[in-house]
Amino acid sequence: MKKRWTAGQTGITIFAAALLFLLTGYILYPTFSTVRQSFAGDAGYSWAGYVHYFLLPQNRAVIRNTLMVGLLGVLTCGAVGIFLAVYMRFFCRRFRRLIQILLLMPVMIPGVIIVIAFIQLYGETGMITKLLTLLPWVKNPPYTFDGLGGVVFVLAYTQYVYFYLNVYTALQYVDKNVVESVLGFGGGVFAVARDVVFPVIRPAVLISIMTTFLSAVSAYSAPSLIGNGLRVLSTQIVKAKANYNMPLASIQVTILLLMGTVITALFYSLSRKYSWEVSTRTEYFQFVSRRRKWLGRAFHLITVIQLVLIVLPVASVVYLSFVSTKSIMMDVFPHFFTLENYQAIFRSPRVLQPMLNSLQMSLLAVAIGLALTLPAAYLGRRSKNRLLHSAEALLMLPWCIPASVIAINLINVFNVPSIFAFGKPLIGTFIILPIAYAITALPLLLNAGRIALGGVSAGTEEASRSLGAGSMTTFVRIVLPALAPGVISGSILVFVRTMGEYTMSALLYGVYNRPVSVSVVTNMQEYHIGISMAYGALIVLLCCGLMWPLLKLDRSRFAVE
Amino acid sequence: MNDIELRGITSCYGSTRVLCNVNLSIRPGELHTLLGPSGCGKTTLLRLVGGFLSPAEGQILMNGIDITTLAPEKRNMGIVFQNYALFPNMTVEENVAYGLKLRRTRASLIREQVDRQLELVGLSDYRTRGVQELSGGQQQRVAVARALAPDPKVLLLDEPMSNLDVSLRIHMRKELRSIQRKIGVTTLFITHDQQEALEISDTISVMNAGRIEQTGTPGEVYEHPQTDFAATFVGHTNRLDKPALKAWGRPEEDGLYVRPERIRMYHDAADNAPVAGTVTEVHYQGALSEYTVDTEVGCFSVLELNRGGMTSAFGDRVYLELCL
């Protein structure tokens, strides 16, 4: 059979080859290089490094702690997220939209800011802790906000969103008629939950477990700031790198990478196994309980507590940004209001620079990410080009690579001149952080592009072509307008995440690209708490401001109705 | 000369051959229908004519010129898709004007043409509406107006009525036929609905498994099916074998397809109705009733017009006449 090879196919092949070259250079080869280094020793490649690592009890404890953080993180986030999803789907009637928006706040506010806010609230000298010690019958603080418990507490209130959004979306597909059939057969509430609700939410729960676990085991800001000596892989990697012990860092990175890959493969395949087709005739189920009013009230009460816990850190950051550092440190309730923190930022170019650096680097990361993912998503939709599909698979790879792993991988390859960087080393330059941010953003942007393209029917493009438009005109006038909302919302999400990114920033920043997240932490550690809070408040303001266009463009993805 | 001519078209998806050596001619101004079941290759054929697919073998000619490898935007064909494929970011008039703007037509001419098309499809009052605000029938009309606005040489209709409810579908096919006649544009229409095909076509090509089984006027295809498939797919039919034909006094013939309305039913025996049987099924359809009659030479379907009530009932003894 004859095959007609067109100019378009040649263009796709050239693009796919260029993309593969870049992805190999910045993702695949660095990962391979780190794994290789973890096996390297004086007598060639061997398992000796790993044997030595696992023989030391403190290293085994690091792995145990990391798995513990992952496991407890999943359990607590699952409990909070699923509870909120059920509440919002079936019980919440009043202030629904406001609550939905408030519940999204942890997505929009960088983790490092929330951790610092938690310290100001629940830490040894935190406002809530000091308030409790004022009570006559409380002599010592009733809790210590640090160690494993503190880290898991922070995780529960920052990472529950994966469970909440996924399960909330899945719950809408609980079919009223199926529920009624089960009840008709004599099944009770338990049977409905087991046979109808659970199978519907199971894929969402599995995907959420995977995402939360990956996020928990690679979390760096919480263990490093409130871990109080809690040794987990992410903190040990940074420590090893700081001590220039790259072979040790490589072993730890490889173990973390292995955890990420195994969990991703396991839970992704499980979620596919249990996935189901949505019936187009689904009649949505609404829970109406006339008898169990106490149940509704209990749900309301727990949610109110939850909302207070979510809003309090954000409010405290903004509040403390207007208070002098002296007052923060001396008073139970800091009340010496001032604008000096903001003046310090905006009057000194040196203090303002990290903010500008982060803005610049985040925008650059979004631009790089879009330049790679958007054409790949568009061309990959109908093309059967194998090179392109391999490149698409590589674009999704960072999904299962923890942030600290990406950073160490880049250090290993780009601390010396590299063919992938025009023969120059990249470590210590401005561009290395935007590149690292862009790598983590690739799966999210590719997915955003794919979802947005799903809304552009092949028919509309063909209709445009049949009316005389060439492929470029069709792309600009028909595809792009349809694509824009989804892609812009994905870009905003990436921008917000990278604005406050801390893990990779701590490993890769230098004199020329010190990001605001690093400045937030160092200012706090140097007791310039007010400035640290003002940085935080500015980021909160920026992120909350971006929430408006995000919800306007892509409301359904964020479960805001 | 024919407007569209397909010569020896073969098309494949991977290793699956979906069209095998298809030859087809469409005369200028004709409404030519491709009728066949799902998966028979009719949409592939339309997409080949539209330029969205390239055939593995064969040629597509328009007015005698080979357009096999010509890009879709250079073919000047209007297409109405099954899901209408309207541009969701544009209003009704922007959708209709789209093709004209691409041709850099003067603004005054665009306005004139948009007015004419919207009037033709009865949507003049909806010009500023977003396409999402329209009903299925209205969306279909916008799609027709949009396809016709640039004055295409050929109109391609890909099951445009399959998303409409029955009554609207009947109404729209009459309207579509009247618009097509008024403009005189050569049209290739795709459907799996035999009633639709019989009602609006000048010529029908019956397709099955990637091949054209028969091409002819609706009357020819219905009255004189040339293959088993054409006979069974287009309308109901009775297959009369040799013993049955012998019983009806036609021993010289080997086999024959007879439509149910070509068999007449009597309550009394007569010379012209030699085959006796019993009514075993009755299906009342309003204007018509369909009877299944069990005889010694086979089971036959009979269709009768209800003139003030049904003529027979379950269990009646009847005598059948062939009216060929």
Please summarize the sheet with the most strands of chain A: 2 strands, antiparallel
What class would the helix/strand composition of chain A place it in?
A: mainly alpha
Question: In percent, how helical is the residue content of chain B?
Answer: 25-40%
Structural class of the secondary structure composition of chain B?
A: alpha+beta
Summed over residues and divided by their number, the pLDDT of chain A gives a mean of 86
Mean pLDDT of chain B: 90
Number of helices of chain B: 9
Using only CA atoms, what is the Rg of chain A?
25 Å
In the sheet with the most strands of chain A, the strands line up as: 1-2
Chain pair sharing the greatest interface: A-B, 19 and 36 residues
Residue runs with pLDDT of under 50 for 5 or more positions of chain B: none
Please state the overall shape of chain B, judged from the principal axes of the Cα atoms: elongated
Quaternary: heterodimer
Strand content of chain A: under 5%
